[in-house]
Amino acid sequence: MSTNSNFSRYQRAEDFGTPARVSTESVSLTIDGVDVTVPKGTTVMHAAALAGINIPKLCATDSLEPFGSCRLCLVEIEGARGLPASCTTEAGEGMVVTSQNARLADVRRNVMELYISDHPLDCLTCPTNGDCELQDMAGAVGLREVRYGYEGDNHLSAEKDTSNPYFTFDPSKCIVCSRCVRACEETQGTFALTIDGRGFGSKVAASQDQPFLDSECVSCGACVQACPTATLTENSLIEKGQPEHFVVTTCAYCGVGCSFRAEMKGQEVVRMVPNKDGGANHGHSCVKGRFAFGYATHPDRITKPMIRDTIHEPWREVSWDEAFSFAAGRIREIQAKYGPGSVGGITSSRCTNEETYLVQKLVRAAFGNNNVDTCARVCHSPTGYGLKSTLGESAGTQNFDSVMKADSIVVIGANPTDAHPVFASQMKRRLREGASLIVLDPRSTDIVRSPHVEADFHLPLRPGTNVAVLNAMAHTIVEEGLADDDFVQARCEIDAFEDWKTFIGRPENSPEAVAEESGVAAEVIRGAARTYANAPNGAIYYGLGVSEHAQGSTTVMAIANLAMLTGNLGREGVGVNPLRGQNNVQGSCDMGSFPHELPGYRHVSDAATRALFEKEWKVNILPEPGLRIPNMFDAAVAGDFKALYVQGEDVAQSDPDTQHVTAALSALECMIVQDLFLNETAKFAHVFLPGASFLEKDGTFTNAERRISRVRKVMEPLAGLGDWEATQGLAQALGYDMNYAHPGEIMDEIARLTPTFEGVSYARLDELESIQWPCNADAEEGTPTMHIDEFVRGKGLFRLTPYVATDERTSRKYPLLLTTGRILSQYNVGAQTRRTHNSSWHEEDVLEMHAHDAEQRGIDAGDWVGLKSRAGETVMRAVISDRVQPGVVYTTFHHPASGANVVTTDNSDWATNCPEYKVTAVQAHKVTQLSQWQQEFEEFTAQQEGFLAEAKAGAEEPVN
Ligand code: SF4
Ligand code: SF4
Ligand code: SF4
Ligand code: FES
C-alpha cells in the first residue's frame, strides 16, 4: 500500500511479534481451533498472527528476536507444563494451543495491572495517545481497575532527557521491556543502550548513564521505533500531534535508498517512519532520513524565480515565464554569438530519474549538443567505466540482502557506518554472525573496530596505493593456487586471463614488493587475500576511496578481476558492490547524464541508438561526445564556453580546485541554477529557478542496488512548479516541444527507449514496491543478482591493472597526504543537513591529525591550522586522532566556509576525469586567522546574501 488517508493506530504496520523464519521444513499446529502450517523455527506467536490471532504482547515485536520478559503473551499448550510464553516457544508439529480463556485473561490482567500501577495516567495528554501499545494492551486484556494504588514506590517523577534534538526520553513511562536496547543492538548495531540496575531499580541507560546526545547514540531512531510506549518519542510528534495520513516515499539522502512512510497532517510532515516493506532498509533508518527533513520548509528556501544581468547586482524576483524567457533568450544569443557548443547542462544525482532524464534531453534536443554531465563525474564515473569494461554493466551486482550470505566481506575505501548507515547496520549484523572482515582504508573507520565487530585484517594503505595492494592480493591468490579455475575457464575470456595471469605473476606485483610503497606488511596482504579467496562466499563493497583517484578506473577493474579470479560473482553472498554516494547517482548515470552516452549506457556514436531517440524526440542528435564537467570549466576559463544550466548540484562547493571552478563560473555569461537554496554555485548565477524538495515531487530514485523506488509527492511545490515542470518550461521557451502531464509519462518514455527499464512503470512500481533493473520480458520483477549464468558482456574480461603512482606525491614543501570523506550527520555539501538539527553533531569541518604530526608542528587540539596544497590554502580546527596514521590528515567537506576543495587539486582519473579527492599533498601549520580565500569567501557571501535579502524585501513591499 502506498498511501492511506485514514491514519489511525489500526494503520500501524502489521506486527507478527517475532521475526519470520525461513526453512525448507514446515510444521502444522492448531491455535484456538485454527489449523496453521508454518516454516520450522517459527514461534507460536508468529504462527498465531499468521492465522489471524493476535496474542497480547509488549516486549515482542517482529523486527527483534524474542526476549520473553513481559509475560503477557502466555498461552496454554496441550501436554505442556505451566503457561509458556508464545513469543519464545517454537511451534511444534501437532501442537494444540489455546491463546484465550478465562485463566489466561486473568494472568494477563494481573501483568498489565502491575505495569499500569507504575505508569502515569495521562493518556489524554500523552503525545502517543491512540498509538501506544501499552494503552492497546490494557484495552485488549480488559483492564478496568488497578488494585495496588499509585502511592507506593514508583518512577513517575523520573526526569526527562531532552538532550537529543529529535527525540525525548521520558523514563516515567518506561516499562523496561528492553525493546529499545535490543533495537540498538540487533537493528542498529551500536550497543549504546543498556538496562542498568536490577529489579525495581532497573532502567534504560544510554552509554555510561549519559544524556542521549553525549552518549554513543547515533540517533538512528530504531529505539524510538521499537518503543511500545511514549517513553521514546519523536519531538516532531510531541509538537505536532498524531498524524492523519501517510504516503510511502524514498529518502533523498544517500544511495541506500530507504523507504519511508511520510506521516502527515495536511501538508505538514509529522514524522518520517522507516517502512518495514522497504526492500533496501526493512524498517530501519539513519538520522538523516528519519529526522533531518526540516530543511524542506526552512526559511532559507527560495520560492520565487529570480534573474539578474550580472552577478554584481541584486536579484529581481520574476514570474516563472519571465525567468524562462530570460534564460532561453540568453542561451540563444550566446549560441548565435559563440556557437551551439558554447552551452551545456549538469544533471543532479539528488533529483529523480525523470528530472535527470529531462535535463539531458533538454541539452541534447533543445541546446543541440551533448554537453551534459553529472556529479557522478566526481564520484563513481570510474565504477561505470571499470565495471562495464570487465563485466559488461555499469552497476553493482547484488542487492543489499546478499550480504547476509557473505562469509568474507571486503570493504575498500568506504566508510559505510557514516556514509551508508542502514546498509552498515545490516553488514554489522552479518559480521556479528561470524563473517570475516577485511578493510582496506588509510583511516581506521568505525567498521574496523566497533562493539562486537572487529576487522580480521585492516590494511591501512597509504592514499593512492589501492591498485598496488589489490594487485598484490591477486598475485597471492594466483601464486598460492587459491583461484577458482573452473569459474575462470567457464565464464571468462581465456586469452585475456592468460595475459593477465602473466602480468599479475610478475615480482613487482608481489605483496613483498608493494609493502613499502603501500605501507602494508606483506603478511597482512597475503592473509587478507587468503581469507577472501578461501571463503565460500566473498563479497566486495567499495566507495569513493576507490574511485576518486588518478587510478580510480584501474582500481575498479582490479576489484572485478579479484572477484572473477575467485568465482565470487553471479550468486547471492558475493559480488562487486559500489556503495553509491547520493540517493540517485545510479539513476543519473542510467538516465544518460554522461556526455558520451544516451540513457541505458549506449554510446552516442551508435547510429541505431541515436535513431531510436531521434525518432522519439524529433531532433538530430550529434554523434560526438560533448564536454565533461572539467572540460566545461576549462573551456569557460578559456572563453569558449558561456552558458550552463545546473540542476540541484553545487559544483562551487563539491568540485575540486574551488578557485578554478569559481573562475570558470565567473566567466559565464549565463548561469542558470535550479536549487532549493542560494548555494555556492547560485552565487554566480544569472537565473535562479527555485527547486522542489523530494517531498514536493513525484518520480523515482535508483539506489546502489539498482533498485528503482517511487518518490511520492506529500506536499505541493513551495514554488509552484516541480523540477521537471521547470525544465519543461525552459525547453518550451527555447522552442522545443516538451509536454508531459505527469512524471509517470516521462518514465513511460524512458521505458520505451531503454531496454533495462522496459518493464518499469509507475503502476508496476506501485504493485511491486520497488524494482531492481534490468526489468524486461526476461526479468519481469527485476534482477536482484546480476551475471548469474553469464556476464552481461558474455565472457568476463580480465583487464591489466599496472600500478602507476600518482603525480600527487609528498615533498618537503607538502609532506602530508590529505584524504577526505563524510560524516554520518551531514550529507555531501551539507545544503540540506546544515539546515537541520544535524549540525548539533558536526558544526564545522575539522582536520584530523595524528598526534605525532601535530606535535611536530606545535599544534594542539582545537588550534586553527592552515592547510596548504599547490592548489590553495584554507584554515580549519585541528582534532588529534589515532584514526589516521602519521603522515595522513583527513577532513570532510560539508561546510562551504571550510573550503576543503580549495585545497584539492585538478588531478583526475586517467579514464574518466574523476577527481583525485583522496590524495592531496599538503602542509599544515598553526595559524591565527582565516586564509585569504576564506576572507574573500566571507565578503562575497555577505554581498550575495545581501542581494538575495534585497530581492526578498523588495518583493514584500506593497505595490503602489
Ligand atoms: S524505553 Fe520503551 S522500549 Fe525501552 S525499555 Fe522503556 S518502554 Fe521498553
Ligand atoms: S537512536 Fe539508534 S543509536 Fe541511538 S540509542 Fe536509539 S537505537 Fe541506539
Ligand atoms: S541510510 Fe541513506 S537512504 Fe537510508 S535513511 Fe539514511 S540517508 Fe536515507
Ligand atoms: S511478548 Fe512474550 S513475553 Fe513479552
Shape: globular
Question: How much of the polypeptide forms β-strand, as a percent range?
Answer: 15-25%
Radius of gyration: 29 Å
Alpha-beta content class: alpha/beta
| Ligand species | iron/sulfur cluster, FE2/S2 (inorganic) cluster
Termini gap:
51 Å
Question: Helical element count?
Answer: 30
The gist of it:
The protein has about 950 residues and is of the alpha/beta class. It contains 30 helices and 37 strands. Strand 10 (about 245-250) and strand 11 (about 260-265) form a beta hairpin.
Fill in the keyword field for this structure:
960 residues, alpha/beta, 6-stranded mixed beta sheet, binds FE2/S2 (inorganic) cluster
Structure report:
The protein is built from 30 helices and 37 strands. The protein is an alpha/beta fold. Strands 14-13-28-27-26-15-16 form a 7-stranded mixed β-sheet. A hairpin with a 3-residue loop joins strand 24 and strand 25 (602-603). Helix 8 (320-338) packs across helix 25, helix 9 (353-367) runs parallel beside helix 25 (723-733) and helix 16 packs across helix 17 (522-534). The chain is globular and about 90 Å long. Mean pLDDT is 92; it is low at 1-10. Residues 183-184, 188, 190, 192-193, 217-223 line the site of one iron/sulfur cluster.
